[in-house]
Design goal:
This protein is mainly alpha-helical. The protein has helices at 9-22, 27-36, 52-55, 62-69, 80-91, 99-113, 135-140, 166-179, 183-201, 225-233, and strands spanning 2-3, 39-43, 48-51, 74-75, 127-130. It contains 10 helices and 5 strands. The termini are far apart.
């Protein structure tokens, strides 16, 4: 088996998704890896975590991971530091501490692997990177975006990360479920509708500065601007 390091955001996404597909059928290796890991890739669209030692290798699955542990692979060295650096290069960012994600990871790990999964684990060492915001859109389309830029910047639609109250997020998720659309589609349409309303209400209107009267005096009905100017300045000197 040949190990290859990830080189693009989409390869990190693929490996991360594979980790979560493997958990139901073989949870023990994943549980042990989570306990031993300090560096995690966070998926904001699905609110879940993947150890960088898994996410950092292209096409990772349980068979390849096991072979790496056994030293039965060729190609890239099966090494956590190499995997972490590869993820950072692919996503164009560095692993950093994040107290908010500390709490989210602890909650996810206990829900996924049991309440004692973090017993004895020094969670102060945890650090994170985030998957790019186009990740879930690629999944919804049934494919990963081709030619992804290693910086993680999309050259198609613009992707931004926003924080919204949980009550609004629940409404978005209910709407997405009811309509069969993705969460990003619902958010995008809601934002577009709001912008349309705001622009309609705030469209520029030229202020009416006209004044009363009955139009031009009869002597200027021919529209001769020269005579109008002379009459305007008559008696003003110059």
């Amino acid at each position: 088996m040949i190990l290859e390091l990830v080189e693009s955001p989409d390869e990190v996404i693929r490996s991360s998704d594979a980790f979560h597909r493997e958990i139901p059928s073989d949870p023990d290796p994943a549980r042990l890896l989570v306990r031993k890991s300090w560096y995690f890739v966070y998926d904001p669209a699905r609110r879940r975590f993947t150890p960088s030692k898994w996410a950092g290798f292209r096409g990772m699955d349980s068979g390849l991971y096991g072979a790496g542990i056994d030293g039965a692979t060729d190609g890239a060295t099966f090494n956590g530091t190499r995997a972490r650096v590869a993820v950072e290069r692919a996503l164009g960012t560095r692993f950093r501490p994040d107290p908010v994600l500390d709490a989210a990871l602890a909650s996810w790990a206990r829900e996924t692997f049991g309440g004692d999964v973090l017993d004895g684990v020094d969670t102060r060492k945890w650090k994170y990177v985030r998957l790019p915001e186009h990740a879930d859109a690629s999944r919804e389309a049934g494919q990963y975006s081709p030619g992804a830029d290693p910086s993680g910047i999309s050259h198609g639609p613009a992707w931004v990360e926003i924080s919204v109250p949980r009550s609004i997020m629940h409404r978005v998720e209910r709407t997405a479920s009811a309509t069969g659309d993705g969460v990003r589609t619902v958010v995008s349409r809601a934002l577009a509708d709001w912008l349309d309303r705001w622009e309609a209400e705030n469209r520029f209107r030229l202020r009416d500065v006209s004044f009363g009267g009955d139009g031009l005096n009869p002597e200027f009905d021919d529209g001769d601007w020269g005579r109008m100017r002379e009459a305007a300045y008559e008696g003003q000197g110059g």
